[in-house]
Structures are given as structure tokens and as C-alpha cells.
Write a structure and sequence with these properties.
40% of the residues lie in helices and 14% in strands. It is α/β, with parallel strands linked by helices. The longest helix is centred in the N-terminal third of the chain and has 27 residues.
Length: 231
């Protein structure tokens, strides 16, 4: 269980983030040392990088493609070809060229939808992600776990996961959070550029205007196996 308490100060949150980052760096260093023994010193840096990425899935934690579908195509995934769509950064050829192994696709809605239709729009974003993933089965494979990422990678596909970009997407409802989990969402940033009723957003750092001193009590989210990110 992860319980966010109002007694958590900004300093404690920062310390926790540093510990998390140190852990990730240590893991990365250990992983890198493990790969070093298999490196061919005759290869160029580019060739070594491509060799590693051919054996280890590269996971990107955030991609706004679903929002581009909403903004530019009214959520239609059939009116544009992701192989040739030139107005975006994430066409299929670019993803393949970048050796992407897995992608967290962001389900995003503006902060001005908070207290109004944020949940509905976030649901539509999840739906859009699932539809464009399904439209290109030779490229993407919808997954919800680390094992799923490895399975997709072994099949030569990009493991596709979903993250909610901002806690305002759940309208302060654990019921909504559970529903999003059932739909396949596996991370949620606590805030975007606006406070929720239970968390300060990053802008509070600029003028030291903390409404909640970081977080309020909003418990029992850990058991849903959703990663909570401090944005």
C-alpha cells in the first residue's frame, strides 16, 4: 500500500526522488557492466549501441501520439497512415529507426477539463491508444507488464503500455483509478500543470505556494500496481 500523507514535506518527496534516481542509476550501471563482457571492441559506438538495442528493449516512458490524434484527427486512427504521417515525431519508420522496444503512450487531457470532462476525455485517449495499437499489429503489441514487454520484444514488436498524464484524469476517485487499471493503464503522474485536490503541481516550486505541502492523504493506490510519478 502506498499512502500519501499530508505530513510529507517537499524535502521528503525530493529525498525519495533522489533515492529512486540513485537506484535506477545503480541498476543501469550494473546492467551496463553485465553487457560489457559481450561487447566486441572492434565495433564502432553506433554499432555497439545497435547491438545492445537488438538484445535489450529500449523503453520510452512518454509519448503524446494519442493527443496528436485527438488534436489533429479528432481521434480518428483510420484517416492517416502512421507509416507516412509526416506532421508528427512518431511515425513507424522513425520508431523502428530509433530501435524502440516499448512505449508508454500518454493519455492526456488539458487541466482546464478538471472538474468537468477530464475522465471522459482520458477514457477517449485510452481508447485511441488501443485502436492505433490494434491497427498496426505487425508493429505494436498491447502489454501491461514487464513480461509483456519482453514477449513483444521477442516477437519483434513494440510493447505498448498506457500512462495517465495528470491525476486530474481520475477526478479524485479511486473507483476511476481502478477502472483505468482494468483498461490497462500502468502509470499516472500525480499532477500536470495544475493542482489536484490532493497534490501540488510543479509550478509551486516557482513561487513557493504550496497548497498541500506536497500531498494529502489519498491512500490504497499501491495495490493496483500503478506507478505514481511526481511530475
Amino acid at each position: 500500500m502506498i499512502v500519501a500523507s499530508s505530513s510529507y514535506s517537499k524535502k521528503k518527496i525530493a529525498i525519495g526522488a533522489v533515492i529512486l534516481c540513485v537506484g535506477i542509476v545503480a541498476l543501469g550501471l550494473g546492467f551496463g557492466l553485465g553487457l560489457r563482457s559481450t561487447e566486441d571492441n572492434t565495433l564502432s559506438r553506433q554499432e555497439r549501441a545497435e547491438d545492445i538495442l537488438s538484445r535489450v528493449p529500449l523503453v520510452d516512458g512518454h509519448n503524446d501520439l494519442a493527443y496528436q490524434y485527438r488534436k489533429m484527427k479528432n481521434n480518428s486512427v483510420n484517416t492517416v497512415d502512421l507509416y507516412t504521417w509526416s506532421d508528427i515525431h512518431s511515425s513507424v519508420p522513425k520508431l523502428r529507426q530509433g530501435k524502440l522496444g516499448a512505449q508508454f503512450w500518454a493519455a492526456y487531457t488539458d487541466c482546464n477539463t478538471q472538474y468537468k470532462d477530464a475522465v471522459r476525455i482520458s477514457m477517449e485517449q485510452v481508447d485511441t491508444i488501443k485502436r492505433f495499437v490494434a491497427r498496426y499489429p505487425e508493429v505494436f503489441q498491447f502489454v501491461t507488464s514487464a513480461q509483456g514487454i519482453l514477449d513483444a520484444f521477442s516477437a519483434g514488436k513494440i510493447g505498448s503500455l498506457i500512462g495517465l498524464e495528470g491525476g486530474h484524469s481520475i477526478d479524485s476517485s479511486l473507483g476511476n483509478l481502478r477502472i483505468f487499471y482494468e483498461l490497462g493503464v500502468r502509470y499516472m503522474t500525480l499532477t500536470h500543470s495544475c493542482n489536484t485536490p490532493w497534490a501540488d503541481n510543479w509550478k509551486a516550486d516557482n513561487n513557493n505556494t504550496y497548497q498541500f505541502d506536497g500531498l494529502t492523504q489519498f491512500g490504497e493506490v499501491g495495490k493496483y500496481s500503478i506507478i505514481l510519478c511526481i511530475y
